[in-house]
Amino acid sequence: EAGVVQSPRYKIIEKKQPVAFWCNPISGHNTLYWYRQNLGQGPELLIRYENEEAVDDSQLPKDRFSAERLKGVDSTLKIQPAELGDSAVYLCASSSPIGQTYEQYFGPGTRLTVT
Amino acid sequence: AQKVTQAQTEISVVEKEDVTLDCVYETRDTTYYLFWYKQPPSGELVFLIRRNSFDEQNEISGRYSWNFQKSTSSFNFTITASQVVDSAVYFCALSGTYNFNKFYFGSGTKLNVKP
């Protein structure tokens, strides 16, 4: 079974530029998460989708961050404009409520460097 | 409020030594889940174990074992006979009654296993 796929793996941009990250969850997983992981810290949730609906976006900086999950499968996270403080690893995860086990499966992440 | 504390920032051991990674959690929920994840240098968080609050049995999986003690709000992870491949950052996470999909991660413990 294929895992969570993310692209790109690395991205270097100048501040004020836009950037987008893409995620393809595990097939059949209807819950998708975007996390941000700063250096030396644990992941912090940015947004959670149940199918196409964003059910928890309380930690998403909505002035510059946006996300979408069209058709309830792939998802894109966008930052516009990027700031120096946005440098981090952006992780995508997915889970399925089947069996109500709740564990989340993570992709390899996108390491963003803003210069 | 949910909180996970991993007080050990970094641990170094020599191969074949046993090592215990500590995790202390805070929650007011009576039902909750605890998780351990491994993050190797490649960046992808790998699910290791899930434990619900009603199951205090310790678990052993090969060289890995977990000790869950509600009395001390701890969920510690022991690696027996450590190997170089165990070198990674290990995260403990908590999710609570009102939203089992929302994970609260600790800051992680970096384990260095030297040959």
Explain what you see.
The complex is a heterodimer of chains A (115) and B (115). Chain A has 115 residues and is an all-beta fold. In chain A, 0% of the residues lie in helices and 48% in strands. Chain A is built from no helices and 11 strands. In chain A, strands 2, 4, 5, 6, 9, 10 and 11 form a 7-stranded mixed β-sheet that branches. Chain A has a 4-stranded antiparallel β-sheet with strand order 1-3-8-7, with no helix packed on it. In chain A, a hairpin with a 6-residue loop joins strand 7 and strand 8. Chain A is globular, with a radius of gyration of 14 Å. By secondary structure, chain B is an all-beta fold. Chain B contains no helices and 12 strands. In chain B, strands 2, 5, 6, 10, 11 and 12 form a 6-stranded mixed β-sheet that branches. Chain B has a 4-stranded antiparallel β-sheet with strand order 3-9-8-7, with no helix packed on it. Chain B starts with a strand and ends with a strand. The model of chain B has no long low-confidence stretch (mean pLDDT 93). At the A-B interface, strand 5, strand 9 and strand 10 of A face strand 5, strand 6, strand 10 and strand 11 of B.
Topology, please?
The complex is a heterodimer of chains A (115) and B (115).
Chain A: E1 5-7, E2 10-13, E3 19-24, E4 31-37, E5 44-50, E6 53-56, E7 65-68, E8 75-79, E9 88-95, E10 105-106, E11 110-114
Parallel strand pairs in A: 2-11
Antiparallel strand pairs in A: 1-3, 3-8, 4-5, 4-9, 5-6, 7-8, 9-10, 9-11
Chain B: E1 3-5, E2 10-14, E3 19-21, E4 24-26, E5 32-39, E6 46-52, E7 59-61, E8 64-69, E9 74-79, E10 88-96, E11 99-105, E12 109-114
Parallel strand pairs in B: 2-12
Antiparallel strand pairs in B: 1-4, 3-9, 5-6, 5-10, 7-8, 8-9, 10-11, 10-12
